[in-house]
Amino acid sequence: MAWTKAQQYTIDSRNESLLVSAAAGSGKTSVLVERVTKLLEDGADINRMLIVTFTNAAAAEMKERIAKSLGGSIVRHSHISTFHRFAMDIIKQYYYVTGVDPSLSICDEYQQSLMKNAAMDEMFEDLFESEDKAFISF
Question: The pTM is what?
């Protein structure tokens, strides 16, 4: 594949952290997979890498491509995930420092919808019971 100058810099750059930000479909996942693959070929330890992205699909795709490129077992215990999953892992591992309940979970769309509806119902009920003129007029 022919990489752009910026993509090639990202792939070849060493000894620095990089933030890769680009439009959807611009090749971010391919560039990151190529970068990680080359780092691993150069002797880097995948267990010392943090590779995060915004979607479960992109994280799964990166894991799959790296596994395909270098052998499946190498990514089994790697830190390739979404930002949310990474944050959850930190909270669960260090709950005693953060003060956050380790049973915390990320709600799915269904749970989110239920919570929004419950909050709206509660707000409407409170406003109605308080005889809020603006609300009643609305």
Answer: 0.65
